[in-house]
Please model this.
Amino acid sequence: MREVIIAANWKMHTTPGDAGDLARTIAGRIREAGVTRVICPPFVCLDAVRAALAEADPEVAVGAQNVHHELAGAYTGEVAAPMLVGLAGWVIVGHSERRRDAGETDALIGRKLGRAVEAGLRPILCVGEQLAERETGRAEAVVDTQLAGALTDHDPAALQAAGFVIAYEPVWAIGTGRNAVGSDAAAMAEAIRASLGRLGWGSAAVDVPVLYGGSVTSANIGEFLAEPSIDGALVGGASLKPDEMAAIVARAALTARARAAAA
Ligand code: 13P
Model:
């Protein structure tokens, strides 16, 4: 039985002055034991969110949105994995906004994954195609290439032991209000597990949680969680709104309970 995960990506929102209050408010609204819940604020808000959640609900995890591919060195403005230890338990790598704005390649993202695993952080690897790639029938091939590029040098067992998660985030659905169709996202989740199988994961591929991300709201979360191959969501804009998070996590709890009952 795969776990059900709702991860909040706050992107470049909140400040150290207000992030703790928002995290506390959201934590109070998402008390669902069966759902793995993660909040990923900006680096400078990690400590405030960590402290707030330690009080409000220690079961809600904290994640970073990025990590550097080296352990230390002359990398002005960057944050290395060992620096996150104690502040975050999770980390997002390969978000499309970083691929776009920071020129991150699949190989570089693969190195970030390695640093995350070494530091004991639970990684969420983001993959997803551009609109033109979907419209020309290349979405699955693009995602397969992203996975191969990032995962080739990684031992599946080590990643699995680190709690590796994949988030399928079609770029055209991010921040656009235009979410993917549930069945398309489910087909991609199956394709992702097939890619993992070809990358040496064997039967372990079926155990990797695959989340959907891209304009997820309380109104459409049910469409994704109705798909057995999808294990939750990586939520952007809606994750800053307590009402939205409450409804999204409540819906996820239904799926978690149904899975537990069926197991
Ligand atoms: P939105 O939910 O704002 O579309 O963002 C999705 C995302 O990029 C989460 O990582």
Observations:
- The chain is about 45% helix and 15% strand.
- The mean pLDDT is 97.
- The CA atoms of residues 131 and 203 lie 31 Å apart.
